[in-house]
Amino acid sequence: MSFSSVVKEELESRIDLAKHCQIAEFAAIMALCGKAAYDGSGEPFLVMETENEAVARKFAVLAEKAFQAQPREAPGGHEGRRGSDICLQITGQAKVMRILMALKWQDDEHGPIKKVFAHPLIVQKECCKRAFIRGAFLAAGSISDPQKFYHYEVVCDSEDDAKRLSEIIEFFHLEAKVIARKKNFIVYIKEGSHITDCLNVMGAVVSQMELYNVMILKGVRNDLNRKVNCETANLNKTVEAGVKQMRDIEYIRDTVGLSYLKDPLYEVAVIRLENVDMNLKDIGELLSPKVGKSGVNHRLRRISEIAQELRRKNGVPEPGQNKTDI
What we know:
By secondary structure, the chain is of the alpha+beta class.
């Protein structure tokens, strides 16, 4: 099951007790996947289409609780309906008119029906804004697999609708952006921490904790990878420095002999030759008297300088350098 499906199943079970919040969530579902129409006799009815069973079940529960209406599955052949869609209808002029007025799609004078995305009175309260965002996500939202990347989105039919939804989301200090995609407009959130906060706003607290856990594990994994890469880079530098030190000491040994070096340098050179993999600190522990890491490093640098002087005197290039380069 996808992460989106898990979130929607959790949101399906979240039923607000306040009727105004139930209406707000119902309004969001209708705004994104519903419409009002007239039958052959001129009677109005409401239609809601979705591919998600959780959305259909939530729509039916909200219709019952908020309006005492019982949606029924529409007969086949509905215009624009795809084979995989679930199509629910609410009929009965009195109930339909009451719902239309509650959604602000129609006024008290029973004028023309005009679809409204999110009427200010419906999302006036903070709790109703939360309910509306929840309904919008149920109707047309998705979240990517957090193991791969972080992306939350809701697909809207028009730019005005998308901007209105982004405003409602931004009320909770979340960064929601709008982008055009084909014939639709997408409200999306990319920041992982904002997505977790949005899940909390919608009431999907279990999914929020699951996403938190994924983010923590990915953060630990990324930190570990950075440390490993850093340590590997440092190790490579240490190995390269050690190889160069060995070449310099061996060159001195094979040309003028290690006795050419003064006693402090001679002692370090002998220990380095006998302990190829030993670090500078441990080399210093073997010296008499003991010398710190910086002191050992200074002596090895001086040995390298002597090796370079001997190579220049003998016309021998540095390792990895051509004669024409000197």
